[in-house]
Design goal:
- It is a single chain.
- By secondary structure, the protein is mainly alpha-helical.
- It is 62% helix and 0% strand.
- It has four helices and no strands.
- Helix 3 (49-63) crosses helix 4 (71-91).
- The longest helix is centred in the last third of the chain and has 21 residues, at 71-91.
- The protein is globular, with a radius of gyration of 13 Å.
- It starts with a helix and ends in a 5-residue tail after the last helix.
């Protein structure tokens, strides 16, 4: 496992639980873990904010059965991109 992976996954889990699109994170801390690996793969691969937003929208619709407002996935994608940039700078290598 790469250095920092647990920290990165925990940080991403924290963000997803704060977002909590289905409202269960207070009771189920790992509800959104199904999105961790796909999101990290996209982020590490240099995905653009639009791709992250599209992925989140697809997950909400197909996996969780929600119909999100147009701005919900896009706003979270912007937050994830900002977080990812900060994580890369903190790591010193620009990649985690």
């Amino acid at each position: 496992m790469r250095s920092g992976t647990d920290v990165t996954e925990n940080g991403l889990r924290h963000l997803l639980n704060e977002w909590d699109p289905i409202g269960v994170a207070d009771d189920v801390q790992d509800e959104y873990d199904c999105m961790l690996a796909p999101l990290l793969r996209r982020l590490r691969g240099g995905a653009e904010q639009t791709e992250i937003g599209d992925f989140l929208r697809q997950e909400l619709e197909d996996h969780f059965g929600l119909t999100p407002l147009p701005s919900e996935p896009e706003a979270m994608a912007a937050r994830l991109m900002s977080w990812w940039t900060a994580v890369g700078k903190a790591d010193g290598a620009g990649c985690v």
